[in-house]
Amino acid sequence: MKAVIFDFDGTLLDTERAWWEAYSALYRRHGRQFPSHLYAKTVGTTNDAFDPIQHLCEAETNLKPGDAAREVEAAHRELLEGEPLRPGVRASLEELHRLGIAIGLATSSHRAYVEPFLVQHRIRDFFAVVATADDVEQVKPHPALYQLACQRLGVAPRNALAVEDSPNGAQAAIAAGLHVLCVPNALTQQMAFPDGCHFRRSLEGLDWEMLIASLLKD
Predict the structure, then answer these.
(1) Once rounded to an integer, what is the mean pLDDT over residues 189-198?
(2) By CB neighbour count within 10 A (0-12 exposed, 13-18 middle, 19+ buried), where does 175 fall?
(3) What is the pLDDT of residue 189?
(4) What pLDDT is stored for residue 197 in this prediction?
(5) d(C-alpha 8, C-alpha 11), whole Å
(6) C-alpha torsion 70→72→78→83, nearest 10
(7) Could you give the CA distance from residue 56 to residue 58 in angstroms, rounded to a whole number?
C-alpha cells in the first residue's frame, strides 16, 4: 500500500452533523420538520441531489434563499467552533507519515471551505495532495476525485486506500479502484454502504501496519 487518501467532511472533522443541525434549526424556526431522508442523499456529495434551502423556500415563499443560506452558514460556523478532529485522526496521520505512506485528501467540498479547517487543526502539512470540487467536473459518487488524487500522488488506485464515512464517498473510491475503509459517523452509521468496504467504528487505536498487511493479502 503506497497511499492513503482521506475524505474530509465527516471523516476528519464531523462537519456533517453540524450541517444537519444547522438546517434542522432553520426548518424548526419556520415550523417545519427537516426531511432527513432527503438530506441523506447529499452526504458525501453536493446539494444537487437535494437542496434543503430551495426545498424550504418553495414552501415558505417569504423566505429568501440568500438569507436562509447565510443563516445556515453562520449556525454551521458556530457549531464547529472548538469541534475537535474525529478520534484517531491526528494519530493516524502521524503514523502514516512515520511509515512513509503518501497521504492525500479527496473531498466534494471546495478548497476555500476545506483549507482553513486543515490549517486551524494543524494537519495541512500531512497532505501531499488535496483534490477538491474545484479540480473536477463531477464530485462523489463519481470516481474523478479519487482518480485525480491517485494521479497526483503518482500511485495506482489498486495501491491506495480511501478512508470514508459515507456511501457516496465509498462508491466513488470503489469505482476508482481503491481499497476502502469506512468509518461512519453518527449521521451515516445507519446508511447502506456498497459492498467491498472494510469497516471500523473509529480510527482511534487503529494498527495501520496490520491493516495494510491484511489488505495486501486480499
Answers:
(1) 92
(2) middle
(3) 87
(4) 94
(5) 5
(6) -130
(7) 5
Q: Are 140 and 172 in contact, with CB atoms under 8 Å apart?
A: yes
Residue 201 grid cell: 467504528
Three-class secondary structure of residue 176 per DSSP = helix
The set of cell numbers assigned to 46 is 453536493
pLDDT at 41 > cutoff 90: no
Opening angle at CA 118, ends 46 and 66, nearest 5: 40
Q: How far is CA 106 from CA 47, 56, 139, 173, in A?
A: 17, 30, 9, 10
Pick from 105, 183, 196: nearest CA to 146 = 105
Residues known to be catalytic? 7, 9
Q: What's the rounded Cα separation, in Å, for the pair 169 and 1?
A: 20
Q: How far apart are CA 14 and CA 9, in angstroms?
A: 6
Looking only at the bridges linking them, the beta strands covering 129-131 and 179-182 are: unpaired
**Whole-angstrom distance, CA of residue 127 vs CA of residue 150:** 13
pTM of this structure: 0.89
Q: Which residues contact 132 (CB under 8 A, 6 or more apart)?
A: 107, 109, 110, 111, 114, 145
**Top-level CATH class of 3-13+86-217?**
alpha beta
